[in-house]
Design brief:
This protein has 7 helices and 22 strands. By secondary structure, it is of the alpha+beta class.
Length: about 325
């Protein structure tokens, strides 16, 4: 793979002993005091200054943090525009905030359907939940839906409030890739399990913001995709729900193992939803991938994993998780 660049945090864990499927590791049971701590941590100043975390591939073939201006989009490419169509996409998508190695970061995400009471699930990229530099899950993980409805950095003044994660779920294919390579890109999804929250502190996320259906299969070449996120680098500033719409192609530079579309969104959009069968009138579609990575040498393209049986297995573990982060054993 040549010069692939994650749009936000992508750092990789060396080999680790993994539990059996869906067994919790690094259990961090969240009670009301932990929820309150995370909400208090995300002051308006911290939310406003959370940054996309970009990595670049060096000539030595290693990914290192990019100390320069993040993002590879820009120009007058129209494949990244403000979404003005309204509908469910506005409330069901949102910002993902988290801390890794003492730095606050931002991604995008969306609420996915589940049949649970008291808990809801947010789909985002794997690198938005797991810090493989330290071999640990992100901390202070919080979902802020409907940011575009009332663009404030104060959860208490937002349209619906914020929800904190009691569990984060990734799979072993991502956790043991050993670098941002083909293995990492084809497993770059994660699920955040959130309990009651919002402005009342007791609301269920999917009851307030609604949720999207999903398809854990490859949408196929030429499928029409609508891609959403909150890009916050380059010409974007993280204020606006942004979208692209294009037909899917396969990434030939990555062995055709991942999906691509024409899109100039930048850092901060990682984890944002790719929706097939999208209805522009209702803002409803089917979750079919997430924003994952880009290239320094290829402008105005965005790439995401092909959802598959491993995605389904990871999701199934998330539907059973309550408190305690999880690495799920899946085939690489």
């Amino acid at each position: 793979m040549r010069r692939a660049r994650p749009l936000t945090a992508i750092v990789l864990l060396a080999a680790a002993l993994l539990p059996s499927a869906a067994a919790p590791v690094l259990a961090q049971g969240q009670d009301s005091s932990e929820q309150a701590r995370i909400l208090a941590y995300w002051t308006p100043q911290r939310i406003a200054h959370a940054i996309p975390r970009d990595f670049v591939l060096t000539s030595a073939g290693q990914f290192v943090p990019d100390k320069g201006k993040p993002g590879s989009g820009g120009g007058n490419n129209v494949t990244g525009a403000s979404w003005t169509g309204g509908g469910q996409i506005v409330t069901t998508s949102g910002k993902v905030l988290f801390t890794m190695a003492g730095t606050d970061y931002i991604c995008s995400g969306a609420v996915i359907n589940d049949n649970r009471s008291n808990y809801s699930i947010v789909l985002t990229a794997g690198h938005c939940s797991y810090d493989e530099t330290d071999g640990a899950f992100a901390t202070n993980w919080m979902f802020y839906p409907a940011f575009d409805v009332n663009q404030t950095y104060d959860c208490a003044s937002s349209a619906y409030g914020c929800w904190t994660a009691s569990a984060l779920v990734v799979d072993s294919g991502f956790a043991t890739a050993g670098g941002f390579n083909t293995q990492a890109t084809v497993h770059d999804w994660s699920f955040g399990v959130v309990g009651p929250g919002g402005l009342s502190g007791t609301a269920q996320l999917d009851a307030v913001a609604d949720s999207f259906g999903y398809s854990f299969t490859d949408p196929g070449l030429g499928a029409q995709v609508f891609d959403f996120g909150y890009p916050a680098a380059g010409k974007y500033h993280g204020y606006d729900l942004t979208y692209c719409s294009d037909q899917v192609f396969y990434d030939a530079n990555n062995g055709n193992n991942t999906l691509g579309i024409d899109c100039n969104m930048t850092g901060g959009s990682s984890g944002g939803p790719w929706l097939t069968n999208f209805n522009t009138s209702t803002g409803i579609g089917t979750l079919s991938s997430v924003n994952s990575y880009g290239y320094t040498s290829i402008k105005n393209k965005e790439y995401g994993p092909k959802f598959n049986d491993n995605t389904s297995t990871t999701y199934a573990a998330a539907t059973n998780a309550t408190t305690g982060d999880v690495i799920v054993n899946v085939p690489n």
